[in-house]
Specification:
This protein is mainly alpha-helical. The chain is about 60% helix and about 10% strand.
Length: about 120
């Protein structure tokens, strides 16, 4: 019995595709192929390419929020400097490592994506 990829699997493969080629350079066919599913199945999970992209941005933003929240929870003290230091450590060094990519376009928000 073969496993059908989950929505999360499709999101992870779409992250890689959008990060590599941007919104306009990525097709839903390409995202489907990378996930090992048909394009029709992508459209079953997401009504269109924009919805897939928005889900990718929301997924990445959620992971970023979780990382920052974990960093804030690890702060050595309640003073603002300690919290900011903990957030800086949680978010990581700048410039971002090669596993991060910036997506942008004329009508799209800019977002850093972590590819894992």
């Amino acid at each position: 019995m073969c496993r059908v990829p989950t929505r999360d699997t499709v999101l992870r493969t779409a992250i890689r595709a959008f990060a590599a080629r941007g919104y306009y350079g990525t097709t839903t066919t390409e995202a489907a192929k990378a996930a090992g599913i048909s394009q029709a199945y992508v459209y079953r999970l997401f009504p269109d390419k924009q919805a897939l992209f928005v889900a990718v941005i929301e997924h990445c933003a959620s992971r970023m929020r979780e990382g920052l929240a974990d960093g804030a929870a690890d702060a050595a003290g309640a003073d603002p400097a300690s919290v900011l230091d903990a957030l800086k450590r949680a978010y990581g060094p700048r410039p971002p490592p090669r596993s991060h990519r910036c997506l942008n376009g004329p009508n799209l928000p800019v977002a850093w994506l972590t590819v894992r």
